[in-house]
Amino acid sequence: MPPMLCRVLLKLLAVCLCTLSLWASEEDTKTLRVFLFMGQSNMVGSHSRVEDIRLYPPFAGLEQPQAAVRYSYCIGREDKAKSDGWTELKPLEGVFGPELSFARSVTQTIAAPIAIVKVAAGGTTLGGDWNPDQPSGFALYPLALECVRNALKELEQRGIPYRLEGFVWHQGENDMFEEPFRKSYAANLARFIACWRRDLGAPALRFHIGELCTKTVWGMDNRAPMNAIALAQQAVADADPLVDYVPTSHIGVEIGGDGGLHYHYGTLGQLEHGVNYAQSYLRAIGRWQPHERPLAAWPYAKEEPVRLYVLAGHRNMEGECAFVQELKSLPGKATLANDNPRIAFRYSLGGGAKLSNGWEPLGPAGCYDTFGPELSFGSALAGASKQRIAIAKFTHSGSQLVDWTPKGSETPARNLYPEFIRFVKSCVEELQARGQRVELAGIVYHLGENDMSFGPYRRRAIGDLAQLIAQSRKDLALPELLWWVSQQPPSDSDKPGAHDVTAELRALAAADPHLVHLPVFDLSGRERELVITTPGIVELGERLAACVREQKASPPAPAPR
After folding, report:
1. Three-class SS of residue 95?
2. Which residue, among 480, 463, 476, 473, has the nearest Cα to 405 in the 3D structure?
3. Which CATH code of 3.90.230.10, 3.40.190.10, 3.40.50.1110, 3.50.50.60 fits the domain covering 306-471+492-508+524-550?
4. Are domains 31-284 and 306-471+492-508+524-550 of this chain identical in fold?
5. Which CATH number fits domain 31-284: 2.60.40.10, 3.40.50.1110, 3.30.200.20, 3.50.50.60?
6. What average pLDDT does range 305-310 have in this prediction?
7. Contact (CB, 8 A) for 210 and 273
8. pLDDT at 118 over 80
9. What secondary structure letter does DSSP report for 1?
């Protein structure tokens, strides 16, 4: 048997045995489950704001203490915030990390009580600060080990039965800047994991390793070093059946600075960050139950013609800041929250972080009670024509336009183009297999927001888009395939010397009779740079539908606000 296949089979066997053990132990609802949360600034929760939790309806109430969840912490570098024993879980000094939403998601699913020990400090390295053998800098490994042991000792003194249930680790941005640490990250991480299991006497302790976020400015201007850390983390997860690699590139990122980009998840990102780890843990114990949205009856008659529209793009096509709960407050839009069984919908969101179960009814399907312009787009198109339509959506809010090009970038692991084309082809083939006469009506693409905010990317964005359009037509064997490209205002366009990406896109569309440029510079719901909120996303879908119906170029773009 080939060694690689042998390793895969052994890992699957180990996972199955571990899962069976966890299922059996879940019958015990009394023993306290203790989780360890550790890492650097995006574990601390830097640039999150408790007062902003109210802006995100799916997470309402998380600003309040969770009295049933025990919490012990030591956070920071020089000036550390310490709990001095166990307390109730709550935000600290107006800041929070993934622990809040993690705790709520887990306690809503399992009956057993949980506790969290958190040790985190920004700007720290696995190769130095967190090194178990030769800790340097802030010497966080021995500090964290002492904190955990003290917390567990207190539980023992109180007579509280507990078990170590999981270790959540989010770190790596600082190691990517130092070549020796970057090159040895996989070995260092494997050693780190082994030492924790040894020092805590917990050989079966499961680790959940968070992906570094490619949506941040570091994910753009440090692509290759960040990718090296990601590959190292994945290699450790592949080799260890008790290590899970948790995608986080698609979650929200703080908007800040002149260009709108940031280094930290911020408020929304931290809320979603915790949900990702909770789902990883619940999957490991066999308790994760995704919301099913079955298409009860196939909506099209045999041989009925169907026009397939493919929606694609980044942050706002995904719907980062559009929430289902807010639809009821928009006049006449509340019904968009309901599934529409007359329109078949298939999707791949967040670079594959969430996939549809085949064809589903068109409806809210985002990772965090979110939705994109597909809801209003589908409603507007279906209401204006007797032509039957289907919608497919392929997005990754943690991507940049270079990831969509056929050639890709120096980080091929982030290349989306091959999967995008496979996705489109499979959607057409599946509809045909069900007896439909399918017309691929076109690609509806919302231009990348990050690309419009970072000079080196903005200068190449339209060239990358042109490559994507040209190659897609070749690979789909549709030389006149229509592309509708919507564009929100580029940030900092009024600065001297700023590249005029709008003029470049307008020129590209003028030279291509099958490309329609739709500037949407006046959308509502644009309170912040880059991100479009619920009313703007609904309006974007309606504007796209109107543009598709017209199938002609839009007037010249107005100046950005």
Report:
1. strand
2. 463
3. 3.40.50.1110
4. yes
5. 3.40.50.1110
6. 98
7. yes
8. yes
9. -
**Contact present, 538 and 330 (Cβ < 8 Å):** yes
What Cα–Cα distance (Å) separates residue 232 from each residue in 140, 155, 184, 412? 21, 35, 8, 15
Taking Cα atoms as reference points, which of 380, 382, 353 lies closest to residue 367? 353
Integer Cα distance of 159 and 155 in angstroms: 6
Integer Rg of the chain from CA: 24
pLDDT tens digits, residue range 481-540?
Answer: 999 999 999 887 667 678 999 999 999 999 999 999 999 999 998 878 889 999 999 999
Question: Does the pLDDT at position 2 exceed 80?
Answer: no
Q: Select the highest-mean-pLDDT range: 184-188, 287-291, 381-385.
A: 184-188
The domain segmentation of the chain, as residue ranges, is 31-284, 306-471+492-508+524-550
CB atoms within 10 A of CB 330: 16
pLDDT per residue as tens digits for the range 184-212 = 999 999 999 999 999 999 999 999 999 99
Q: Is 546 exposed, middle or buried (0-12, 13-18, 19+ CB in 10 A)?
A: middle
pLDDT at 560 over 80: no
User: H helices of 306-362, where?
Assistant: 315-318
454-481 tens-digit pLDDT: 889 999 999 999 999 999 999 999 999 9
pTM of the entire structure? 0.92
Distance CA 436, CA 378 (A): 19
Closest Cα partner for 20 from 204, 217, 296? 204
Contact predicate 407/274, CB 8 Å: no
Per-residue burial over 452-484, b if 16 or more Cβ lie within 10 Å, else e, is bbbeebbebbbebbbbbbebbbebbeeeebbbb
How far is residue 350 CA from its own chain's centroid? Answer: 5
H/E stretch holding 116 reads: strand 114-120
Inter-axis angle of helices 417-433 and 455-475, nearest 10:
40
Q: What digits encode the pLDDT tens for the residues 395-452? A: 999 999 999 999 999 999 999 999 999 999 999 999 999 999 999 999 999 999 989 8
pLDDT at res. 260: 67
Evaluate if residue 561 carries a pLDDT over 60: no
Separation CA 138–CA 494 (nearest Å): 44
